[in-house]
């Protein structure tokens, strides 16, 4: 043992060890790995010393620094003879690096042993390569074996993984003898060159190994599965093949899919895994952020390629936080898979993997592929501890909010969602900035929402705020929301049981989280109320009398709605007039102007808007349920809706008028310029900030509006039947009152939003103006809460000190938002355990990317011929996450949306590689909506996908 190892080079450590000089000696550094073929290659060398060296030294690891390249043990090679070794070789002479593996012949060992007694002092601090160089200068011959990158040094967590992970075939072969918690099938693998040279021998080997078993012929190209590009799904695999002509055709198909194949590209043949019950793909870290979650994307139809091809319409995704032992798992069938994942990570010493798997009827886990996640995240300032800390705080928050508040009926467990009621996911996104979050709270979620419900006739749940935050994500307090939909007239005990029943119904049917008022909670009386009656009596065991009490309360609320729209619209008109007055007060300071605009917006804007939105829902429900009961046809309902003149219709008409010259372009911009894709987002540009982008396309491609109603329209023919149906359930049936309500409610909702958003948008510009005076950008302002900005009006701090304080606050919030964006959270949070593990169904989009984009959208499934100019700059819609659409990545698209596909599908991985914002697997309903849109906003970081125009 070299006791003085800290002060000497590695050569002294070798001399300290005893060795015999009568046979060759293999010496290696203790921190390297190499293939078993390398020592044999060294033994075949005829020189005194045989050295393993690496010609791929500069490219073995992408991202090596210049200093790291300089501080290596270099070699100079001339026709397999080494002519120079050591650290001090001029860099432009160097052919490669010494890997730390050398074979000494007996003659060389005799020379080496003499150095134990008589060693030049200059060698005391030298390394092994320089001892070899010294021996070379004494006349010993030194030859080399080039390992060409096929070795590993333990400098980085990736090193072992990079050594073991090769092509698909190589990786599975190397892992097969080591895994114990899963099965890796036997294989026959060969290169394209081998197939072209001796196909008969290979076919015989396949038959000898597998007989007449059903086989899978898979690609195993060198260009697949690297640390820098996955090329996932880029080449063919052929399933369910047997020996004979079909096998030959399958091999040729795989090779043909390579295009101009490299001679070293491989074909992998294995027995087909049969009786598959679950199959899918695991990412052992999240694709976008590398955050500490297992992402297990799987389906249960037995198709082992459905997930990777993006063709599955029945996929589920388990998100399991690393370093937690969620017991039991949300799907306990995946327990064996999780154990196999832990084992593979431990074997590789690496935890950013992409693993394909199958589970058969005996619950045996089969590993079909292991590859690194091919997304470079160097420079990221996020670490696992940041996510763990945020989730720990979220658990504490859950416990603090768990007790049922005294002003809510009964005693119910908490439940939170991002889509129910005033769905924050759609309005401000899933990771909004502090300013947007605080604005939404002040204008709606703190009190306005509950005030509206109480004034409308529902239960008064104040002072319950509707917004709760977990891990930086805004959630609706579903418990408070559902309580606020109970009629105020209900007895307390009945209200408590109704609240418990509806909450439990949503827990049992979580996919209804964005359909609350249609499928979970009755909030008004409609012609088809009997369906609620059946559910409450049969599923909830409520008595007929109790249901009648609820029905009577909802009837009163619904009937009163027919007579309040005009009052709400009058408040909106008052807001419009006050806005014009405020705009004339040019001497107001920006912050004071913002405060007044927002105060008016809250009192005269969002409150009457909330009433009109509720009335609009009642109106739409009456129409839909009248269609359901058969009182009117679908054509009649659509005919009525097409006759409405909402703001959207007016915008279209004004665009046509501008196109024809009847309305000046400047007037058109002035009328609609306050709109912005993100209503509460100060960084979202107003239309008048970029009218050529947002408004000009409407003028250049004007669309016709709906037809005016006439006596031939289905609605005109059937509306009397509608009035009769409304009268049947005891609601006002006067034609003028009913139709006036329907129109005022639906049109008024859109008009109210248009007007109040003008106040909000102008207030945001005033805040931006105030921020600019302090040197604060819009991006910084987005991360500062409204209260901190308004407090500047009375702050004793100097402008410089205030700006610095706000800048620090913005920086801290920005970091917190990045951590929040990296954390995986369920859309419906049913328990604290779901902060560690939860399952998403196929209806929840998988968002990829961190950049926001608003652009025209194009549905490629409807395009027969598509040229580069047709899709460049567009958000492209495709039916599934299929490799057949790979060509779009070279066409300058702005974003990608797919109907089907999961978090680990081909397109998800490709989008991450290209840094392209994407929403994968949005489901049929949302896809149909987007296919009709002109302009769409896609914000993966906020989990937002919505139609702008």
How is the topology of this model organized?
Elements: H1 10-16, E1 25-28, E2 32-34, H2 37-43, E3 49-54, H3 66-70, E4 74-78, E5 81-86, E6 96-104, H4 106-117, H5 128-137, E7 142-146, E8 151-153, H6 158-164, H7 168-176, E9 188-191, H8 192-197, H9 199-210, E10 215-220, E11 238-241, H10 245-257, E12 266-271, E13 276-283, E14 293-299, H11 306-309, E15 315-321, H12 335-348, E16 353-360, E17 365-372, H13 384-401, E18 416-417, H14 424-427, H15 434-445, H16 448-456, E19 467-470, E20 473-477, H17 478-483, H18 492-508, H19 516-519, H20 530-538, H21 544-561, H22 565-584, H23 590-628, H24 634-642, H25 647-660, H26 665-672, H27 691-694, H28 696-700, H29 714-728, H30 735-773, H31 778-781, H32 786-790, H33 799-822, E21 828-829, E22 837-840, E23 846-848, E24 853-859, H34 868-871, E25 875-878, E26 895-898, H35 906-914, E27 918-920, H36 924-931, E28 935-939, E29 944-947
Parallel strand pairs: 3-7, 24-25, 25-26, 26-27
Antiparallel strand pairs: 1-6, 2-8, 3-6, 4-5, 4-6, 9-12, 10-11, 10-12, 13-14, 13-16, 14-15, 15-22, 16-17, 18-20, 18-21, 19-20, 23-27, 24-28, 28-29
Helix pairs in contact: 16-23, 22-23, 22-30, 23-30, 24-29
């Amino acid at each position: 043992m070299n006791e003085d190892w800290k002060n000497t080079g590695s050569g002294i450590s070798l001399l300290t060890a005893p060795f015999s000089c009568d046979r060759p000696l293999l010496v290696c550094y203790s921190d390297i790995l190499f293939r078993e073929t390398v020592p044999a290659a060294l033994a075949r060398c005829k020189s005194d010393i045989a050295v393993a060296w690496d010609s791929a030294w500069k490219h073995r690891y992408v991202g090596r620094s210049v200093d790291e390249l300089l501080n290596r043990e270099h070699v100079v090679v001339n026709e397999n003879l080494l002519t120079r070794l050591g650290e001090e070789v001029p860099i432009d002479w160097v052919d490669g690096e010494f890997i730390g593996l050398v074979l000494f012949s007996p003659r060389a060992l005799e020379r080496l042993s003499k150095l134990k007694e008589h060693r030049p002092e200059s060698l005391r601090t030298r390394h092994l390569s320089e001892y070899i160089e010294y021996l070379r200068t004494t006349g010993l011959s030194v030859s080399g074996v080039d390992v060409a990158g096929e070795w590993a040094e333990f400098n980085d967590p990736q090193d072992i993984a990079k050594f073991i992970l090769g092509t698909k075939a190589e990786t599975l072969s190397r892992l097969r003898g080591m895994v114990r918690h899963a099965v890796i099938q036997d294989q026959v693998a060969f290169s394209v060159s081998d197939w072209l040279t001796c196909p008969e021998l290979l076919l015989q080997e396949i038959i000898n190994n597998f007989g007449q078993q059903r086989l899978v012929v898979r690609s195993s190209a060198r260009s697949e599965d690297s640390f820098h590009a996955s090329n996932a799904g880029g080449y063919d695999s052929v399933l369910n093949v047997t020996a004979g002509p079909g096998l030959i055709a399958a091999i040729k198909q795989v090779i043909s899919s390579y295009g101009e194949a490299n001679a070293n590209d491989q074909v992998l043949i294995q027995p087909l895994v049969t009786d598959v019950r679950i199959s899918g793909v695991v990412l052992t870290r999240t694709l976008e952020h590398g955050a500490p979650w297992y992402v297990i994307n799987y389906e249960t139809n037995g198709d082992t390629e459905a997930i990777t091809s993006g063709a599955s319409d029945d996929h589920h995704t388990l998100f399991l936080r690393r370093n937690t032992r969620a017991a039991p798992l949300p799907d306990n069938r995946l327990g064996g898979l999780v154990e196999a994942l832990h084992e593979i990570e431990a074997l590789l010493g690496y935890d950013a993997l992409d693993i394909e798997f199958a589970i058969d009827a005996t619950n045996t886990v089969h590993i079909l592929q292991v590859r690194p996640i091919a997304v470079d995240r160097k420079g990221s300032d996020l670490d696992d501890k940041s996510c763990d800390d945020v989730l720990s705080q979220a658990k504490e928050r859950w416990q603090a909010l768990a007790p049922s508040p005294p002003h809510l009926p009964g005693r119910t467990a908490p439940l939170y969602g991002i889509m129910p009621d005033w769905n924050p996911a759609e309005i401000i996104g899933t990771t909004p900035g502090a300013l947007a979050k605080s604005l939404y709270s002040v204008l709606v979620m703190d009190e306005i929402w509950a005030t509206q419900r109480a004034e409308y006739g529902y239960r008064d749940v104040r002072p319950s705020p509707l917004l709760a935050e977990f891990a930086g994500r805004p959630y609706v307090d579903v418990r408070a929301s559902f309580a606020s939909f109970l009629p105020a007239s209900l007895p307390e005990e009945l209200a408590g049981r109704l609240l418990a029943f509806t909450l439990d119904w949503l827990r049992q049917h979580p996919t209804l989280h964005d359909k609350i008022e249609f499928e979970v909670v009755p909030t008004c009386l409609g012609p088809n109320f009997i369906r609620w009656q059946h559910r409450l009596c049969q599923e909830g065991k409520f008595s007929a009398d109790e249901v009648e009490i609820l029905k009577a309360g909802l009837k009163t609320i619904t009937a009163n709605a027919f007579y309040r729209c005009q009052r709400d619209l009058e408040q909106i008109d008052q807001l419009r007039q006050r806005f014009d007055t405020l705009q004339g007060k040019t001497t107001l300071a920006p912050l004071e102007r913002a405060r007044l605009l927002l105060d008016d917006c809250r009192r005269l804007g969002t409150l009457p808007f909330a009433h009109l939105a509720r009335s609009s829902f009642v109106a739409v429900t009456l129409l839909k349920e009248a269609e359901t009961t058969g009182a009117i046809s679908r054509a009649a309902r659509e005919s009525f809706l097409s006759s409405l003149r909402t703001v959207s219709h007016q915008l279209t008409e004004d665009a046509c008028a501008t196109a024809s010259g009847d309305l000046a372009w400047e007037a058109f911009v002035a009328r609609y310029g306050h709109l912005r894709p993100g209503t509460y987002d100060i960084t979202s540009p107003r239309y008048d900030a970029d009218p050529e982008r947002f408004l000009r396309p409407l003028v250049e491609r004007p669309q016709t509006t709906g037809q005016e109603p006439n006596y031939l329209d289905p609605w005109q023919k059937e509306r009397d039947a509608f009035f009769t149906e409304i009268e049947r359930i005891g609601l006002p049936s006067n034609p003028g009152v009913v139709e006036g309500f329907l129109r005022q409610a639906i049109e008024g909702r859109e008009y109210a939003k248009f007007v109040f958003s003008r106040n909000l948008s102008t207030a945001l510009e005033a805040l931006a103006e105030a921020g600019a005076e302090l040197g604060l950008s819009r991006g910084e302002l987005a991360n500062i809460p409204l209260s901190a900005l308004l407090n500047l009006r009375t702050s004793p701090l100097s402008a410089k000190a205030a700006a610095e304080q706000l800048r620090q606050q913005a920086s801290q919030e920005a970091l917190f938002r990045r951590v929040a964006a990296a954390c995986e959270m369920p859309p419906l949070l049913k328990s604290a355990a779901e902060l560690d593990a939860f399952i998403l169904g196929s209806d929840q989009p998988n968002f990829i990317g961190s950049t926001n984009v608003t652009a025209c959208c194009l549905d490629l499934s409807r395009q027969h011929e598509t040229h580069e100019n047709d899709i460049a700059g567009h958000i492209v819609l495709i039916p599934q996450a299929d490799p057949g659409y790979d060509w779009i990545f070279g066409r300058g698209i702005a974003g990608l949306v797919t109907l089907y596909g999961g978090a680990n599908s081909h397109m998800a991985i490709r989008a991450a590689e290209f840094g392209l914002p994407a929403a994968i697997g949005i489901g049929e309903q949302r896809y149909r909506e987007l296919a009709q849109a002109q302009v769409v906003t896609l914000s993966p970081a906020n989990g937002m996908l919505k139609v702008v125009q």
